[in-house]
Amino acid sequence: TRSTRPQRLLKAVQKHATRGDPQSVISAIDHFCRHSEWAMNIGDEKGSILDSVVSEVNPEKVLELGTYCGYSTVRIARLLPPGARLITLEFNADYAAIARQVIIWAGLEDKVQLVEGASEDWIPRMKEHFGIETFDFVFLDHWKDRYLPDTKLMEDCGLLRKGTVLLADNVICPGVPDYLAYVRNSLSYKSCYFKSHLEYTKAEDGLEKSVFLG
Ligand SMILES: CCNc1ncnc2c1ncn2[C@@H]1O[C@H](/C=C/CNC(=O)c2cc(-c3ccc(F)cc3)cc(O)c2O)[C@@H](O)[C@H]1O
Ligand SMILES: [Mg+2]
């Protein structure tokens, strides 16, 4: 049977990227998506904004919602200081399998814990299962109608502390109107918009950075 797009993306990484070199993995995926097949990775333009926010926060504990093929997982993990940890949640077994291989090819498996499961099931278990008190940085890039309920769930589970940074992809395209209204109007967040473009296209998209005020 015909291979899937994530399988072809992984093949491109294993063919063109140097094992243990995260930047070459990032470049191989961006080349594949720009010249072969579009895929919903954050991409190089928004990815540079993600890099700058991660570098500014310099987080010890990171949560990513929606691993997909692991592109943003690699972008974030490559910037983390020694001892820092990234937990990424992915409930599609096929995508999780591809992402695991991409993360291993980048040589970042020691910094990343990929959990195969749904955010709503695992957010409430972060403390007892992973010994996580609070997260320093959260990247939201899963189903767009889940950004808001999962943010409220993280608040209710006490996983956000004064200063935790939430960074949300696709706030324009496909768009997350309910989430945007919440973080921009809530007195518990200081929010700002980074205008950019939808990955590998000229369409407008952007990232919303929201700092939890406690
Ligand atoms: C049920 C909620 N909980 C979840 N828990 C764990 N993993 C989850 C969850 N939801 C979704 N996922 C996973 O996250 C990923 C989903 C991402 C959804 N992203 C998009 O739809 C998206 C879509 C576009 C896009 C933009 C313009 C288009 F014309 C077409 C597509 C661009 C993007 O950057 C996107 O992120 C998948 O790997 C999915 O299996
Ligand atoms: Mg996205």
Short description:
The protein is an alpha/beta fold and 214 residues long. Helix content is 44%, strand content 23%. A hairpin with a 6-residue loop joins β6 (189-197) and β7 (204-212).
What can you see in these coordinates?
By secondary structure, the protein is of the alpha/beta class. It has helices spanning 5-16, 22-35, 43-57, 71-77, 93-105, 119-122, 126-130, 147-156, 171-175, 177-185, and strands at residues 61-65, 85-90, 112-116, 135-140, 160-168, 189-197, 204-212. The protein is built from 10 helices and 7 strands. A 7-stranded mixed beta sheet has the order 3-2-1-4-5-7-6, with helices on both faces. The N and C termini lie far apart (51 Å). Bound molecules: ligand 619 and magnesium ion.
Helix content: 40-55%
Which consecutive residue ranges, at least 5 long each, have pLDDT under 50? Answer: none
Q: So what's the overall shape? A: globular
Give a count of the beta strands, DSSP E runs of length 2 or more: 7
Distance between the termini: 51 Å
Radius of gyration: 16 Å
Provide the β-strand percentage band: 15-25%
Q: Which class of secondary structure composition applies to the elements?
A: alpha/beta
Q: What do the pLDDT scores average to? A: 98
List the ions, cofactors and other small molecules found in this model: the ligand CCNc1ncnc2c1ncn2[C@@H]1O[C@H](/C=C/CNC(=O)c2cc(-c3ccc(F)cc3)cc(O)c2O)[C@@H](O)[C@H]1O, magnesium ion
Sheet with most strands: 7 strands, mixed
Q: Helix and strand succession?
A: HHHEHEHEHHEHEHHEE
| DSSP summary: helix tally | 10
Main sheet strand line-up:
3-2-1-4-5-7-6
